[in-house]
Amino acid sequence: MTKIYVTGYGIVSALGIGITPTLEALKTQRSGIGPLRWLNTLHSHLPCAEVGYSTEQLREIAGVPKGPVTTRTALMGIIALEEALRASGWSKGNPLPPVLISGTTVGGMENTEAFFLDFIENDSKNEYILAHDCGVCTQMIASHFGKFDTLSTLSTACSSAANAMIMAADMIRTGRTDIAVAGGSECLSKFHLNGFHTLKILDKDPCRPFDATRAGLNLGEGAAYLVLESEASVKARGVTPICLLSGYGNACDAYHQTASSPEGIGAVLSMEKALKDAGLRPRDIDYINAHGTGTPNNDESEGLALMKVFGADNVPPVSSTKSYTGHTTSAAGSVESVISILALQHNFLPVNLHFKYPMKELSFLPVTNDKPIRPLKHVMTNSFGFGGNDTTTLFSKI
Amino acid sequence: MEHMILDLKKQIIEVLNLEDMTPEDIDDNAPLFVEGLGLDSIDALELIVLMEKQYSIKLEDPGKSKEIFRSIATMAQFIQENGTQ
Amino acid sequence: MPVYIQSAAQISVQNPLCDDWLTDPVALQAPLQRIREADYRRYLDPIASRRMGKILKRAIATAVTVVEDSGIEQPEAIIVGTGLGCIESTEKFLLAMLREGEALLSPANFINSTHNTISSHIAIHLKCNAYNSTYVHLGISFESALLDAFMQFQLGRIRSALVGAHDEMVPLYFSIMEKAGFWEGKTATETAVSFMLSDTLTERAMAEIREVILLHRPSEERVRQAIEQTSLRLGIPVEKWVIPPTVKPLFGESFTNHAYEVYAAAVKLQRGLLNEHVLLINNYRGMETSLIFLSKC
């Protein structure tokens, strides 16, 4: 099987713009969750993890000229993608990797929700109408850089970015391309904040994944992209890869539209598939970045699935970094992949914030000490979406 | 009470979009969730919205609402004791 | 590994779940024509379908039809392409939020607004834990799904896949898109097509999928190069590929209407109405192009 190398990564989240502030925040246990600053909503009492810049500021940082229609999602995507491309050795004016696969669900909703009544009644914002759907968002991100040969957009809710990485890796494995960029981007919108609110799964306090008192998630926003590359291309370009994307798995819980099955069957299957794909045994895994939303249902179901896959007494160190970034929804798969890669590279365990009380259903506790007991070689990231779209990715040291 | 039960059934059929069902199809005392009518957690959330919209009853925790939503009869009882229409 | 279309089912402006359009086509009514619905009670009981909009019912009905036709009850992948997803639910939730405020919104409309609710509903209905994904890339959403399935076969991960194309169009959203000049006089319709793919050549196999290629803003030269490379690799001379006339006059247009082209080509190949090798080219507004190569079984 073709090996897939990670040769670049870039990230934007409430922890900051870029790899450096992200790593610093994880190591100093600084959370990005706090009061809302930019999103205008009735539910402003709910803590969220907003990226700390206005859309206008993001436009300046991204270097996108004023005028053409853009979205916060696209701007965050551009910033993260540029960091990833540069890390892989690309610079402006050089050919782009041929393939970009991006995950998003909300798409251009931030403009649509602001102007929808105007679309109906006033016609003063009609230039935003065709910027609504997800694919346009990917096109906006892509066109900032030049011309990619192939674009596509994934939407499997909160596992979108993880599945985008799978699509891109499969395009390399089937010989369609040597290099591909994949990840996801999603900004906060009133639409999905309200959607999650109707499901009564948003905590009024900072989230406490894997804690007995957990009471829901905090929404976040962000973007992250990885440059994926075949061995031949890595050698031909003479670049130093960061790590391997050593395996991945996708399965469907097929249980309920929003709830996970009690025993987490989809989660078990996606983790088992990823291990098999990588040719690794459960005991090879040194750290798991859990989906860990902090809802009562997810953490119990995922926790039981971990116990099933790894054995109740042998669950590797687990943490949910949603206690730092909030739940970045469609971007979570790539945001948390980048975080897992940072753990692998810098040999530390991201501490699960706000943990106090063990869950009686689980045999393990989340990570509270950042020192690993053995050097990290293989790390796992779980990303689960509504509808039971469960995806697991594995990254390994070279 | 009987009048309210009939109203409640009509409202439930509407908000949960139970096409092809009539109030007579729903037994007052049959369980609404899992067995019986076979409703699920999203329906429970819809019923919470219904309680607030129609009867000004605020139910925050879906977990604690289980007893209230056990059957049409228990819902009607709760509305009679706590609601204003 | 060969990939065959074992079964295909459509619900459209033509008569649903059959091939009547070949002999007895229904005329399109511009500018927007909704789908001619099937009888969904055969597929779903009212409780099971209580939260499903029409787009979901159509998805289940076409999926169950190809499952029954092919005898493949547990496909090893379920992949859907949709341009706009459940736009009716999205619009409902959005309008309620904007007109009635954020206080008392209904969760069902939000849940049904996520694009992947279609593929996950199919999985829940079939009790299928297999690979499951959803593509939402404008006019090549369906082809993206088809490419994913094709690659899963190539990598030897699966031996069967259920691939769907689903879009709905509601009057308000239609009129809004019209304001932005989207429809350009085309007849807007909706899409509901399911395909069952497998690696086994059976008597009922309709067509073989040879290759799927997605190109972003390609030059004519790039398209020609892709066709030549594929032809060379498959050992089929370029001139053997026949581009059939579009079936848009029969099925109208949506983000995923290209699925009807694949469906119609498969039906015609099976009946000997098309030559041996078929090339379907979709050029979506000059932005995205797809090439699908099919052969007779």
Provide structural commentary.
The complex is a heterotrimer of chains A (398), B (85) and C (297). Chain A has 398 residues and is α/β, with parallel strands linked by helices. Helices cover 34% and strands 18% of the residues of chain A. Chain A folds into two domains: 234 residues, Peroxisomal Thiolase, Chain A, domain 1 (3-Layer(aba) Sandwich); 149 residues, 3-Layer(aba) Sandwich (Peroxisomal Thiolase, Chain A, domain 1). Chain A has twelve helices and eleven strands. In chain A, strands 1, 2, 3, 4, 5, 6, 7, 8, 9, 10 and 11 form an eleven-stranded mixed sheet that branches. Chain B has one domain: Non-ribosomal Peptide Synthetase Peptidyl Carrier Protein, Chain A (Orthogonal Bundle). Chain C has 297 residues and is of the alpha/beta class. Chain C has two domains: 196 residues, Peroxisomal Thiolase, Chain A, domain 1, CATH 3.40.47.10; 89 residues, no CATH class. The longest helix of chain C has 17 residues. In chain C, 59% of the residues are buried. In chain C, 34% of the residues lie in helices and 21% in strands. The chains are: A alpha/beta (398), B mainly alpha (85), C alpha/beta (297). Chains in contact: A-B, A-C, B-C. Chains A and C meet through helix 4, helix 5, strand 4, helix 6 and helix 7 of A and helix 2, helix 3, helix 4, strand 3 and helix 5 of C.
